[in-house]
Amino acid sequence: MASEGARTSSEYIVHHLTNLTTGEGFWTIHLDTLIVSGFLGLVTFGFMLLVARKATSGVPPGWQTFIELIVSMVDTQVRDTFHAKSNLVTPLAITIFIWVFMMNLMDLVPVDFVPMTAEAMGVEYLKIVPTTDPNLTFALSLTVFAIMIAFNFKFKGVGGFLHEALTVPFGKWLFPVNLLFRIIEDIAKPVSLALRLFGNLYAGEMVFILLAVWAGAGFAWVPAAAALSLGWALFHILIITLQAFVFMMLTIVYMSMAAEHH
C-alpha cells in the first residue's frame, strides 16, 4: 500500500520500479533481473526436462499433454513460417515463448508482496518482473538479431548477403540508398522487439502499482481498487500471453527472412 512506512505516493511508485543493483555507471548490474529470470529458466526448463524423461506413449498424463500442446503449437508456427532447413529455429522459438511468458507471468504477483518481503530480509529494492527491465528485453532482442545475422551468412553466404544488402530493392546503381534502408531495417528489428515487450509489461506493472496507491489512499477505496485490480489481472493474462507469442512469431519471421533469397 502507499501508506507503507512513511513513503509518499511518488516514493512508493519509485521504490517499486527500482532494481536491485550492483556496480556503477555502465557496469551497473541489475541483480534482481538476473536472479529472477535465471531462476524461472532453471525451474521451468528443468521441469520440462523431467516431464520429457518420464514421457510415455499412448495417452499422455496431464503435464505431458500440456507441454506437448505448447510444443506442437510452436512447431506448427515454425513449419508454416520458416521454410528452410534448420534444427535451431523450433527449439529457439519454444525457449523464447515459454521463458518470456514465465517472466511476464510474474506481473500477476501482488505488487507489495515481493518488495515487502525483501525489505523484511534487509533488501531495499527488488523487482519481480524481469521483462519490465529494458536491459533484459534488449538482451533477448540482440541475441535474436545476432542469430538472424548468422542465418544470413549461413544460407546466403558472404557474397549473397552483401549482394542483397546492396541491390535490394532499387538495384545495384542505387546501392548507397539500398544499404541505408537495410541498415535502418535491421536496426529497427531488435529495437522494436525490445521496446514492445518492455513497454507493454512496464505499463501493466504501473497500472497495478497505481491501483495499489489508490487502495492505500483510504479504506473506502479498497473495494473499488481490489475489483479493478482483479479485472486488470484477468485482462493482463491475455497481454502477457500475447506479448510472448508476438516475440516468438517475430523471431521466426526474422529467421525466415534471413534464410530466404531475394
Descriptive overview:
- With 262 residues, this protein is an all-alpha fold.
- It has one domain.
- It is 73% helix and 2% strand.
- It has 8 helices and 2 strands.
- Strands 1-2 form a two-stranded antiparallel sheet.
- Strand 1 and strand 2 (29-30) form a beta hairpin.
- Helix 1 (9-16) crosses helix 7.
- The longest helix is centred in the C-terminal third of the chain and has 42 residues, at 175-216.
- It is globular and about 70 Å long.
- The protein starts with 8 loop residues before the first helix and ends with a helix.
- The model has no long low-confidence stretch (mean pLDDT 90).
Rg over CA atoms = 22 Å
Uncertain residue segments: none
Beta percentage is under 5%
Helical stretch tally: 8
Helix fraction bin: over 70%
Mean pLDDT: 90
The largest sheet has its strands arranged as 1-2
